[in-house]
Amino acid sequence: MRDAKGPVIIGIAGFSDSGKSCLAEALVEAAAAQGLRVAYLKHDGHADEAPDDWEKPGSDTARAAAAGASVTMVASSRGFLLRSRQEGGFPAWFAAIRAVADVDVVIAEGGKRAAHAKVAVVRGEGEWTQLLAAGAVAIAAAVAPDGALTGIPVPVFRPHQAADLLAWWRDRWRQGALAAPVVPD
């Protein structure tokens, strides 16, 4: 599944409550069922504009962050949760995943304007048009309810077709037909 450039990256874009997280979960489940190692990245657009609330108030890591730590980690013998306050976007986040995890697939939810290839999750043609008008780029496929999209320039999958979408995406990725992010080393 991996190539010299790292894991396959499947971006997911759409508006709030469009079904992005449900699709991400279904893709994670489909990939894991095939024995693939999966990372999930969720962009929190609300934290871009306001102070984040990712850490429990008063926790040791929250206090360390408040004291000036740019990176905090909660760890045990079973794993760790890494948190960085360093600015960046999808390329930096993909690089961080590659640095700490050996995965075959990254499911990246959010970032409609980011350069990497993605699936648009929409409820109909109106949302498709609005998503494009909102600046969505590199849309390679769409997920929509039955009959919701016709005549658009990308393949359309149904919400229950996550395994089919994953197979299509992997094939296109291997062919180099999808926009891969430039990930700094």
UniProtKB/TrEMBL annotation:
Please give the Pfam families that the UniProt record associates with this protein.
MobB
The record's annotation in SUPFAM superfamilies points to: P-loop containing nucleoside triphosphate hydrolases
Which residues belong to any copy of the Molybdopterin-guanine dinucleotide biosynthesis protein B (MobB) domain?
Answer: 9-135
**Full protein name:** Molybdopterin-guanine dinucleotide biosynthesis protein B
Which organism is this entry from? Alicyclobacillus mali (ex Roth et al. 2021)
